[in-house]
Write a structure and sequence with these properties.
By secondary structure, the protein is an all-alpha fold. The protein has one domain (2-152). The protein has helices at 2-32, 43-46, 52-72, 84-107, 113-152. Helix 3 packs antiparallel against helix 4 (84-107). It is elongated and about 70 Å long.
């Protein structure tokens, strides 16, 4: 469990920094190209806070929470009595519930139902692709293990 907490904290730090860096680059490029005063947060989101600085801090904090969620949710793959597909579905449900809630809050998507659907669909498609790739890799690993095992007999 300590290992997953360590992973979560590490991923929190990396995700927060990466989110901060991406927002900084977007803001910098937009402002350098003539969009003076551009901020890479929606006006609806920033209106929820007493200052844009606090909104930015919370934004970065939530990026970290997303990263920590992805890292710590991998604990479901340690549950041995569950098959890979069930583990993957559980991982999807955990990560999508946290990430979608944060995304809806950050982008104020509850005001745009089609955007919620499209975001969830994109999230689901990316997970299906990742799960399919991991499944293929696991099958290849099992094949190699079986070949080694049969050679040793």
């Amino acid at each position: 469990m300590i290992e997953y907490l360590r992973r979560g904290l590490t991923s929190f730090a990396i995700s927060s920094f990466a989110g901060l860096l991406v927002n900084l680059l977007i803001d910098l490029i937009a402002n350098l190209t003539g969009h003076t005063g551009f901020v890479s947060m929606t006006q609806d989101y920033t209106a929820l806070f007493p200052s844009i600085v606090l909104a930015a801090y919370v934004n970065v904090l939530l990026y970290g929470v997303i990263g920590a969620t992805f890292a710590m949710a991998t604990i479901v793959y340690e549950i041995e009595r569950m098959g890979f597909i069930v583990q993957s579905i559980l991982y999807f449900l955990i990560t999508s519930s946290i990430c979608m809630a944060i995304t809806i809050f950050l982008w104020q998507l509850y005001k745009y139902p089609a955007a919620i659907f499209c975001t969830l669909l994109g999230f689901a498609v990316s997970h299906v692709l990742l799960i399919a790739g991991e499944y293929r890799r696991l099958k290849a690993d099992i094949k190699v293990i079986n070949e080694i095992s049969s050679e040793q007999e």
